[in-house]
Design brief:
- This protein is α/β, with parallel strands linked by helices and 420 residues long.
- It is built from 17 helices and 15 strands.
- The chain has an 8-stranded mixed sheet.
- Helix 2 packs parallel to helix 3, helix 2 packs parallel to helix 15 and helix 3 packs parallel to helix 15.
- The longest helix is centred in the middle third of the chain and has 24 residues.
């Protein structure tokens, strides 16, 4: 048996069924896997992937394996692992996995280091923790790395900061910035799965409730839209005037978070920043307010501030719901320890949307293997031709046909000479 650290190997059969269900809804990745199996473009490539260990991620791992990659997988969040999937990858696919749902912080970092002990040539990250550990604690190993890929907004923000400070030691592909990732995964995937996580954790009725969305990036757009679709009164808070204006013109109420804190029933942060919901906001919230986060790290809600304004230990009133009693007698309900609620209390994005995101990862990995040596130590976006090919394959898989330009139309669009 390959090395691993998972919860229970007896869960492997249930994990296999879950993976098969996900793969049945990921036709683009299936097409890529079929080509990879024939061409083996990743043959001999050692890959360390730090991703949410879900059935969709398993489909990606099996695709890379089909392409010849020798890979190891660890969790990118302590609460996002599906234990049955982790077990199945070890038992049925012989992929080393280091991930246990609910692992503590020390175990989380032990797992990161276990993945790096395989001495990968490529890092595949979701949140930049793997890259960060390499650059902070294992710098001597960086020379072994050809390139990396990054899945999410928070990770890209960290990587661009590293590149700006001239400390990034190898090129990284920002998969998150692909159009077939953030336009669809962040908006439709995060929107649906976040509402799913909040409802599963609380069983609250959204209709008629005031739902406060902190941040109006692509994730915030999707979440606000889905919450409104469930009948919620949606308030958006923002620091960017352009995004705030867009939210207003999309029909949402826009106000400062301090003002929204007094009227909100359910709060969800999707910003990628720190202490978005802070102590002074929680000090004025209603009794029974629900606090959640769908950004990558649980730093978006100032949990230490919540603890300091509370008495006694929080009550585990429901799975993934910790109820804090404030000094003035109010109850504030924190979901999923402030971590990604769509993965902590639910199953993350639907497989159909992850099909495109992970197609970007697979093709991005192929691209970086071929081109890494020609790239500077910076953050790059996947070539548009690959992005559009993924969209085309997705449409084909859905039975959708679109028009094509005639030669005359193509010539007109590329010329400046013809006008009115």
């Amino acid at each position: 048996m390959i090395e691993h650290d998972v919860k229970d190997m007896a869960l492997a059969t249930a994990g296999r069924y879950k993976i098969e269900w996900a793969e049945s809804q990921m036709p683009v990745l299936k097409l890529i896997r079929e080509r990879f199996a024939q061409e083996r473009p990743l043959a001999g490539l050692k890959v360390a992937a730090c991703l949410h260990v879900t059935s969709e991620t398993a489909a990606l791992a099996r695709t890379m394996q089909a392409g010849g990659a020798d890979m190891v997988l660890c969790a990118s969040n302590p609460l996002s692992t599906q234990d049955e999937v982790a077990a199945s990858l070890v038992v049925h696919d012989e992929i080393p996995v280091y991930a246990i749902k609910g692992e503590d912080n020390a175990t989380y970092y032990q797992h990161l280091n276990a993945a790096l002990d395989y001495h990968p040539q490529i890092t595949m990250d979701d949140g930049c923790d793997l890259v960060s550990v390499l650059h902070k604690e294992r710098l001597s190993q960086v020379s072994e790395i050809l390139a990396g890929t990054e899945e999410t907004t928070t990770g890209v923000i960290r990587l661009r900061a590293m590149a700006k400070d001239k400390v990034l030691q190898y090129p990284v592909l920002a998969v998150n910035d692909s159009m077939t990732k953030h336009f669809f995964d962040n908006r439709y995937g995060t929107g649906q799965s976040t509402v799913d996580g909040i409802v599963r954790a609380t069983n609250v009725l959204l209709a008629g409730r005031t739902f406060v969305v902190c941040g109006y990036g692509w994730c915030g757009r999707g979440l606000a839209s889905r919450a409104r679709g469930m009948g919620a009164i949606v308030v958006v808070t923002e620091v960017d005037p352009l995004k705030a204006l867009e939210a207003l013109m999309d029909g949402f109420q826009v106000m400062p978070l301090m003002q929204a804190s007094r009227i909100g029933d359910i709060f969800c942060t999707v910003t990628g920043d720190k202490n978005v919901i802070d102590g002074h906001h929680m000090a004025v919230m209603k009794d029974g307010a629900v606090l959640s986060n769908s950004g990558h790290f649980n730093s978006e809600i100032n949990i230490p501030a919540l603890e300091s304004m509370s008495v006694g230990e929080p009550r585990p009133i429901r799975p993934f719901v910790a109820q804090y009693t404030t000094i003035d007698g109010r109850h504030l309900n924190l979901l999923g320890d402030g971590r990604l609620i769509n993965l902590a209390a639910a199953e993350g994005h639907p497989a159909a949307v992850m099909d495109m995101s992970f197609a970007n990862q697979a093709l991005g990995l192929e691209f970086m293997r071929e081109n890494a040596k020609t790239l500077d130590n910076d953050v790059y976006t996947i070539p548009e031709v690959i992005d559009r090919e993924i969209a085309r394959l997705k449409l084909v898989s859905m039975g959708i046909e679109i028009d094509t330009l005639t030669d005359e139309q193509a010539a007109y669009l590329s010329s400046w000479q013809e006008g009115t």
